Amino acid sequence: MKKFIRNIVKDRVFLSTLITLAIPITLQNFITSSLNLVDNLMIGKLGETAIAAVGLANQYFFIFLLAISGVNAGANVFMAQYWGKKDLGNIKKMLGINVSVGGITALLFGMCGLFFPEQIMSILSKDAEVIALGAQYMRIVSLTTMLTNITQGYSTALRSTEEPNVPMFGSLIGVLSNAFLNWIFIFGNFGAPAMGVAGAAIATTIARVIEMSYVLYCVYGKKNRVAAGIKEMFSYRMPDIRRYFKVSTSAILNELVWSIGMTAYSMAYARIGTNAVATMQIATTLNNMFVVIATGLGVSSAIMVGNKIGSGEEETAHDYANKIAFLAPLSGIILGICVAILAPFITGFFKVEPTTITATINVLRIMAVFAPLRFFTVVMIIGVFRGGGDTKFTMLLQLCTVWFYAVPLAFVAAAVLGFTVEQVFFLICTEEIVKIFFVIRRLRSRKWLKNVVEEPALAA
Q1: Which residues does 292 contact at the CB level (< 8 Å), separation at least 6?
Q2: Is residue 363 part of a domain?
């Protein structure tokens, strides 16, 4: 063990690359999570019903964001490996496929959220006031789906080519804009009417426009290496699309399987009551402020592993995977301790019932206990395996552990056994124990090492 740790410390190329990528990617994720925290802190002043309404409405957009993440993840596998070969032409073509597939996804989610918000909210809650407020929020924010697709598509290309700073600053500008506009539209400042939940939705929409504009300016205004013309992006052929979907379908399904599972958990919590929904909305938002490190480490790992596989250095990619497998749970231990200590202090900012605060603290501490396991599985699945092109295994693993284990367990515990929100959440977390055995076995097998760019380049 000591020899292995010394090997990690001495590998300056590995550490410097990981830090260079992970810090801005993690900061971007942290900033994005801050947006949700700011929204919930401000909306929290309107009461538990408003928190529950916006939280449940955002579950719909959470599914959309993860669907887009799946589209981006598939493209990222190709882009990272092409960057290992320094093949900018195919990276730009892959950007075109990425934006096109994401555009179809964004259009479908946007239209459904715009025209059927009440029906969607009624699936998530039985509280009439929560449904009405959530539908109001959903209808407005649905206008941002296409903007998000464009921002995320270009951000993926930038990160894959080891330029993560632009997406990071774009997110920062978006969050600051959103917080300021929330203050104006939610509470009625600068002469604007106090619009409550609708004001939060308007603020989010304007902030998304600002964020997208900044990213596009940095790409085209500053002539970035991924600045692709129309012909470069959209000259792809059907064989190119088939190649993309061969790898990406599993990544897209993986994100959808997981995100719909998270929504199913919310539906299970709703069976307990609105207080339980509010508890999990606050706890999840706060927890996301910490687990962004796992996501940042995972995305960075995917890029690093993909680059090495694309350049033909498979042994180095395998070595990187083992080092990352050691660092991931170690990070989880550190962050878990921080969550457990800070939980009582952060929850004090929310204007909710004392019982909700107590339940939230208990949930956060359960999250802290499972953090090392979660960090390991998340980083391996969205990082090492995905960067290695092994998207089918991760999709099947998520499908089985979420839908054949955790979701049924959650509904039985909440609806049949009448468990508390803390007890239901603990049972859901045991999914990580089941998952870790399969993840370790896959890592050791080396079957996740797949060079997806060995085939002929995308059609000219």
Answers
A1: 26, 29, 30, 32, 33
A2: yes
Residue 151: name the closest of 242, 91, 62, 214 by CA: 214
Q: Which amino acid is at 144?
A: T
| 404 CB-near residues (< 8 Å, 6+ apart) | none
What six digits make up the tokens of 185? 């539209």
81, 90, 93, 223 from 84: Cα distances, Å: 5, 12, 16, 21
Cβ atoms of 254 and 66 within 8 Å: the answer is: no
The owner of tokens 């990425």 is 98
Residue 83 forms part of a structural domain = yes
Residue type, 293: I
How far apart (Å, rounded) are the C-alpha atoms in residues 304 and 227? 22
Residues 451, 81 contacting (CB under 8 angstroms): yes
Q: Quote the domain boundaries for residue 391.
A: 2-445
| Residue 348 located in a structural domain | yes
Q: Would you give per-residue pLDDT tens digits along the chain (460 residues)?
A: 666 677 677 777 888 888 888 888 888 777 766 666 666 677 777 777 888 888 788 878 878 887 888 889 888 888 988 888 888 888 999 999 999 999 999 999 999 999 999 999 988 787 888 899 899 999 999 999 999 999 999 999 998 888 888 998 998 899 889 889 988 998 888 888 888 888 888 998 999 999 999 999 999 999 899 998 888 888 888 888 888 888 888 888 887 787 788 778 888 888 888 788 888 877 877 666 667 788 888 888 988 998 888 888 889 999 999 999 999 999 899 988 988 888 888 777 776 778 888 888 999 999 999 999 999 999 999 889 988 888 888 889 988 999 999 999 999 998 888 899 999 999 999 999 999 999 999 999 988 988 877 655 444 4
Number of domains in the chain: 1
Please list, in sequence order, all residues whose beta carbon lies within 8 angstroms of the beta carbon of residue 223, skipping any fewer than 6 positions away.
none
CA 273 to chain centre: 26
Would you say residue 162 lies in a domain? yes
Burial class for 231, CB neighbours closer than 10 Å (0-12, 13-18, 19+): exposed
Tell me the C-alpha distance between 359 and 354, whole Å: 9
